Amino acid sequence: MRALLLVALLALPQMAGAQEWVPRRVGEIQALDKVNARVATLRATVGEPARFGTLTITLRACHARPPDEVPDAAAWMEVTDERSPAGSPPVFRGWLFADAPAVHMFEHPVYDLRIMNCR
What we know:
This protein has one helix at residues 2-15, and strands at 22-24, 26-33, 38-45, 49-52, 55-64, 73-81, 92-97, 111-118. It is mainly beta. The protein has one domain (2-118). Strands 1, 4, 5, 6 and 7 form a five-stranded antiparallel beta sheet that branches. Strands 3-2-8 form a three-stranded antiparallel beta sheet, with no helix packed on it. The relative contact order is 0.24.
């Protein structure tokens, strides 16, 4: 897991080509409740928890491509589930990529999360 994080951190600037990623303060997250097919778009500010169902989502970083590049977003987030036993680690901790969601997916039996944009 740590090796994957290190690779993702090192690859983040190179993914934009010659341009660097631009840090942003607000991330738009698409959240899906698979049980009742409820879809919501959450606006999460970096460092402040956002709630969806039993999940608490905390963005730690949100980066977008420069305006003159092809749109893309990458967000580092930690997700906890209130149904997890006390003292359990987060159910997800890592980067999500808007343009390549399969690179590192949020896997949960009830919910699905996807970063859409960083503003």
